[in-house]
Design brief:
Blueprint (H helix, E strand, L loop, with lengths): L1 H23 L13 E10 L4 E2 L4 E6 L2 E6 L5 E8 L1 E8 L6 E7 L5 E3 L2 E2 H5 L8
Parallel strand pairs: 1-8, 1-9
Antiparallel strand pairs: 1-2, 1-5, 3-4, 3-6, 6-7
């Protein structure tokens, strides 16, 4: 009987020892130090002065040498998923028009960063516009 209890205790101790690394892991939703926070970027591309969506335009976000591209859909919307938080250059490419370049900050504090690109505001901002 004593041998059976001792064997059970040894087996239980082995299970606890195996589980300790998992118990010490970060709680759900907490990333280990040094891990990149991945976020999404959602935006719309349009021209309010000409009352049109910029469907088919290309939007790029650039971080150093890495370039991500997407195409504006028929509703004038675009998405980038799994984007590390940080600063980017955003480029709006429209056929028959020069590239429009700006800055984008993807926040680690928000799951989605909104990046609306109004070509008319980018070309000639009003006095009331605060960018």
């Amino acid at each position: 009987m004593r041998t059976r209890v001792l064997t059970s205790l040894v087996a239980a101790a082995a299970l606890v020892a195996a589980a300790l690394p998992a118990l010490a892991a970060a709680p759900a939703g907490v990333q280990p130090a040094g891990a990149k926070t991945l976020r999404s970027v959602f935006g719309r591309a349009y021209d309010t002065l000409r009352n049109r969506l910029l469907a088919g335009a290309t939007v790029e976000i650039v971080d150093g040498q890495a370039v991500r591209r997407t195409t504006v859909d028929a509703q004038g919307q675009f998405w980038f998923k799994d984007v590390p938080a940080g600063g980017y250059i955003v480029v709006l490419k429209i056929e028959g028009h020069g590239d429009v370049v700006g800055r984008l900050l993807v926040s680690a504090a928000r799951p989605v960063t909104i990046a609306d690109l109004d070509l008319s505001k980018l070309e000639a901002p009003d006095e009331d516009d605060h960018y």
